[in-house]
Amino acid sequence: MDGMTSPTTQQAALAARYGAATPPAGPWNATIAGMVEHRSVRGYRPDPLPPGTLETLVAAAQSAATSSNLQTWSVVEVADSAARAVMTEVAGNQQHILECPLFLVFLADVGRNERMGIAEGKPLEGTPFLEAFLVASIDAALAAQNAVVAAESLGLSTVYIGALRNDTQRVAATLGLPPGTAGVFGLCVGYPKAGAEGEVKPRLPQSTILHRGRYDASGETAARAAYDAEMSAFSQRNEMAADTWTARVIARNGTIKALRGRDMLAAALRALGFPLK
Ligand SMILES: Cc1cc2nc3c(=O)[nH]c(=O)nc-3n(C[C@H](O)[C@H](O)[C@H](O)COP(=O)(O)O)c2cc1C
User: Fold this and answer.
1) Which residue's alpha carbon is at the smallest distance from atom 27 of ligand 1?
2) Neighbours of 54 (CB within 10 A)
3) How many domains does the chain have?
């Protein structure tokens, strides 16, 4: 499709992503179009996925870059309905976890390499550090995003479920995770219910995110005001509540209570075998 995408399609995709702050059109192809048109979906039909879809998504996920090729991530497919019910409850009753035909939990997994070190008589001195958990979480996120891009290219929809971290230890107990592993987020995959796809959600103007040479926060107040207007119109069209982005960030991060238990994450991770030194 390279070179065949019409400028109108590219312009329309960028306008949907940025509203009035649409960046200038640059190189474009079907891969980029798919990424720019991403949206999370929170309602799924029960239709099963074609045979082999999970394995294809995992091949895409394992093809992501991984720090030093350590491959410190794993993924659990959660098909059992009792386990799905626990995930749904942990995540504040998000019904799409029950609905979707495929639910995955991506793990930061340092434990596998630690077991290898012990088996080789060379226990790993380098893994009790925060660095190892960060590397494993980055690996898990890169892998998952490859799976998301692959899924969307197949006409499937997805939504990440970070709310599993509301109770990381309950997730670990339910999935039988060994020491040195923790669920960092879930992922729903499936075909969207009619009307569940929604619009592409606008993002902050590039001037806020992209810095050239030196970080420059001078334009961010004006850019945020413009983005608030975009998000408030988006919310009204899609969710019936004209919330600004500013209000949503304050609601999400303004109080410890709003973290819904995730303020205890360091303690939970230590209990699961990540000393985070
Ligand atoms: C790591 C991560 C965790 C997320 N957790 C949730 C979640 O628990 N529930 C949910 O409905 N959406 C969740 N999301 C989806 C975000 O809310 C969504 O990506 C964001 O609002 C932007 O919307 P879009 O993906 O449609 O562009 C999560 C996204 C990420 C990247």
Assistant:
1) 39
2) 16
3) 1
